[in-house]
Amino acid sequence: MTQGVVIDVRDLSHAYMPGTPLEVQSLRRVNFRVCRNETVGIVGPTGSGKSTLLYHLNGLLRPQKGEVVVGGIELSNRSADVRRVRSMVGLVFQNPEDQLFEQYAGDDVAFGPRNYDLSKEEIRERVRKALEMVGLPFSFKDRLTADLSLGEKRRVALAGVFALEPEVLVIDEPTASLDPGGRRELIEVLKQWRKVPRRAMVIVSHSMEDILELADRTCVLAEGRMVYSGGTGDLFLDRNLLQAHDLVPPVSLQVVYGLEDRGFILQGKFPGKSLLTTREVAEAVGGMLHGQGF
Amino acid sequence: MVRDSEFALPGKISIGQYIPTGSVLHRLDPRVKLVMGVVLILAAVSVSSMTALLFLFLVVLAGLFLSRVQVKLAFASLRTVIPFLLVLAAIQVFAVPQFREGAAVLWRWKFLIMTDRSLKSGMMLIGRFMVIVTGLSLFTFSTSTTEFMHGVEHLLRPLQRIRFPAHETALIVNISIRFIPILIGEAERIMKAQASRGADFGSGRINFIRRFRRMLPLFVPLFLVSLRHAQDLAEAMESRCYMGGTGRTQLVQLHAVRRDYVALCIGLCTAAASLYLSYIRIDETVVSTLRTVLL
Predict the structure, then answer these.
(1) B19 touching A, CB under 8 A?
(2) ipTM above 0.85, yes or no
(3) Interface contact B193, partner A, CB < 8 A
(4) Among A130, A279, B73, B291, which one is least packed by beta carbons within 10 Å?
């Protein structure tokens, strides 16, 4: 398993404006690891250090204390090849659509590959593949970015990162401010992207539904400390843990816990059966109601 | 300080940052501080000797100690302007022809000529800017933008009689100041996003034109974002029935107390003393010693 590690963060601490009265300790001795073929979720309240951690994953911030190793490249080493790290780890920011700057969608998608001095044909091919991956036709490259809808802009921005052909996708709040349809489409795009073997994904989200749907493993950050790291299901099925970290579970589990409070224990009744998604919960509740003669 | 990122734009920390320490200087009436600031700048540009500048600098340093803000923060803001200052001073010292007439040449190499007059004006230039920059950072360390705005508005109020829009001017100044950190933050965010797609802002080896071209993609989103900020702000103000200055009363009423008058007196006396000190010139002794050493 250790040979599959692509990102290894050890004892990472980070302070903003160190040595001034405005110093803020953002990360405190954080350990974090991402392996190939897995999706890791990061949750935690605003200001808990999530974004700071993300910035370290592709060298936007260099470790002040501790180590960050990405694909074998040691980022605390000042002469590390950051550009290679950045082509390996694609970072999608919050509201990435704010940052489209080219007049045409295609040029914006091509920004990354052009920075890496690829041939014209290769750039064209990458733009085509990237647009296809986010579910847009190649002809979309000639659309004016200013005329696109929010969902389309976000997909173009995502294609801009896909065009770098990263091995790890790091994505911050992917579904924020999208309508339900847009959210669904985006999640499908992400699921499609990670189907390719050896790829890994790190997703930060306040939406527990997104985390439940995408993340195999979830880490909880609170005040700069990594307070939990383990299976996403294990986290959401442990009420004490959720309460201890001030997390509100996905709606499906809110139903399960609501029933529990009224004396209907679902978990014990269906041993060995996963009880996480809306569908699973609905089946369990349905089964119970049938048993009672409904 | 550990340099952990190529994007932390320098100067953001110290210039224009309010640092509340609750000192005497912080509690002064902002009008007094504004007047003192203007007087200090006027004094710094009108004095003609190093002694006077040294005196002004010492007064600013004393103010800095009074404000209980760490001195190194003031020097951090100086550090960001020093490269520009050195370039300006070098031009002044070596390349301005009007200092060559009737002046003693101290040093020459090809077209670069250093005379006693040019050396003096170069030193004065650095001294002036050091006084002004430290003084301005002292002002921003001890005055919040709200206080600053109240101060400006009160000072401009007499001009309302000749229909000068005092309130609006103060508001415009205040909003512009408020927007600086926001825009710096946005610029940083956009640079980070573009760097993570392989754009290269960091290394200084690429030439100036290429560097400028790399900055271009930064301006478009920055412009869009700031326009949106401006629109949001305008809408928020309108939805709260903002109508401008006419008939508007103020929650904060500024009342000058004794310490404000004392401070004002000290400020004016400092300026007067610095003008008096202009007549005592140590810089000429410095130049003449240099002359004897070099010649």
Answers:
(1) yes
(2) no
(3) yes
(4) A279
SS3 A78: coil
In chain A, the number of structural domains is: 3
Instruction: Report, as ranges of residue numbers, the positions in chain B whose pLDDT lies below 50.
Output: 1-3, 10-14
pTM of the model: 0.72
Q: Which residues of chain A have pLDDT under 50?
A: 1
Burial category of B215 from C-beta neighbours within 10 Å (exposed 0-12, middle 13-18, buried 19 and up): middle
Contact A87 B70 (CB under 8 A): no
Exposure class string for B93-122: b at 16+ Cβ within 10 A, else e: bbeeeebeeebeebeeeeeebbbbbbbbbb
- The enclosing domain of A39 has a CATH number of 3.40.50.300
Q: Verify that A50 and A183 share a domain, yes or no.
A: yes
What are the chain B neighbours of A160 within 8 Å (beta carbons)? 197
Chain B positions touching A21 (Cβ under 8 A) are 19, 70
Both A201 and A221 in one domain: the answer is yes
Does B23 reach chain A within 8 Å, measured CB to CB?
no
Mark yes or no for CB contact A115/B200 under 8 Å. yes
Q: Examine the domain organization and report whether A48 and A190 are in the same domain.
A: yes
Nearest CA in chain B to A114: B198
Do A63 and B1 count as a contact with CB atoms less than 8 A apart? no
Range of the domain at A55: 1-80+167-236
CA distance A132 to A129: 5
In this structure, are strands A73-74 and A89-92 parallel, antiparallel, or unpaired?
unpaired
Residues A173 and A58 in one domain: yes
Q: Does the residue A87 lie in any domain?
A: no
Q: Is the dihedral of CA B131, B136, B141, B143 positive or negative?
A: positive
Other Cβ atoms within 10 Å of B210 Cβ, number:
11
The Cα diameter of chain A in Å comes to 70
Same domain for A62 and A1: yes
CB contact under 8 A, B192 and A55: yes
